[in-house]
Write a sequence for this structure.
């Protein structure tokens, strides 16, 4: 693997992690959920079934430069001079809101110890995301805790420095799992002209708006990497095509295409839907074939996409799609 950030998807955990692994997220319901602190690399274990029969999917982030690693609070991290990966796991004790605040404080603390000022992309996995506890939908509680940690740590909750993110549901009782990639230079947040910025959603979606940008463009050594947040069938701030998974998938892909257009306008990059690598979260197993067919049609050929079964943060959403475009690996480097 080369020096630029790389993402590799493996069918199972290798016996040992290569030296250039920054951090790992595993999906699947075979392994126990949680974060394994005994591992040599930060490992976010997400208890989420894979749609393709495969028991596990291992998402390994790699970058061939000298690494250091550590733990602080609930966070486990590994970093080189360009990228930092942080995995956080918090058991929910008092409330999801306080667990979220604790997770984010650990995340920001880990970044600060290594002078990584800029979280670029954050993945959030929340047990029973559409359930209710303490009289409020759990995703809304999560949003309160997240926003209050951002504010408490002196971070903006709107505008250019808000990281890209996603937030999906896991099994009730699972711990809160958050993982992130961060950099030392400010990424550019990209918003979607078709959608209200999530940090400006009206309060009918919850007392505190979600703190995330639609995409984040990082530039390392002149090579841009684009992280597209979880994207759904939302135009303005409203869910469209309730009950119609094919139309929701098409609307979601129109949103991602609009983000790529916007990225082209602000930075002159030239990515197209077919250049991205995807993760698709599908609420109902019976809808996976439809989602796959729509993604394949929009890309012109079947893209690299991991299909997962998950609850989405609004009850009326049936699908959410995230994506990345990474610099090509340098020629001549062994895999
Ligand atoms: C949306 O656009 C759909 O709370 O971090 C997408 C990506 C969504 C990230 C988050 C939520 C989040 O509002 C949901």
């Amino acid at each position: 693997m080369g020096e630029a950030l790389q993402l590799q998807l493996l069918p199972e955990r290798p016996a040992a992690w290569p030296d250039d692994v920054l951090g790992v997220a595993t999906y699947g319901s075979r392994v126990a959920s949680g974060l394994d602190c005994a591992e040599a690399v930060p490992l976010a274990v997400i208890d989420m079934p894979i749609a393709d029969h495969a028991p596990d999917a291992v998402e390994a982030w790699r970058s061939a430069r000298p690494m250091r690693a550590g733990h602080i609070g609930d966070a486990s991290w590994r970093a080189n001079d360009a990228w930092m990966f942080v995995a956080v796991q918090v058991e929910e004790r008092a409330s999801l809101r306080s667990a979220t605040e604790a997770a984010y404080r650990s995340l920001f603390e880990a970044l600060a110890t290594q002078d990584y000022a800029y979280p670029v992309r954050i993945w959030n996995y929340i047990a029973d995301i559409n359930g209710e506890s303490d009289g409020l939908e759990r995703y809304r509680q999560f949003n309160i805790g997240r926003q209050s940690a951002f504010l408490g740590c002196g971070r903006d909750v709107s505008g250019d420095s808000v990281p890209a993110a996603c937030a999906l549901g896991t099994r009730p009782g699972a711990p809160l799992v958050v993982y992130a990639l961060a950099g030392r230079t400010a990424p550019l947040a990209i918003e979607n002209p078709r959608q209200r910025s999530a940090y400006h959603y009206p309060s009918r979606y919850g007392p505190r708006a979600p703190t995330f940008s639609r995409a984040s463009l990082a530039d390392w050594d002149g090579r841009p990497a684009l992280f597209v947040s979880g994207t759904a069938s939302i135009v303005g701030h409203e869910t469209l095509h309730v009950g119609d998974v094919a139309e929701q998938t098409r609307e979601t892909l129109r949103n991602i295409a609009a983000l790529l257009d916007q990225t082209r306008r602000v930075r002159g990059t030239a990515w197209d839907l077919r250049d991205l690598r995807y993760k698709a979260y599908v609420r109902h197993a019976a809808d996976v074939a439809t989602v796959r067919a729509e993604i394949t049609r929009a890309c012109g050929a079947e893209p690299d996409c991991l299909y997962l079964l998950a609850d989405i943060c609004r009850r009326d959403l049936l699908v959410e799609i995230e994506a990345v475009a990474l610099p090509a690996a340098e020629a001549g480097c062994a895999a």
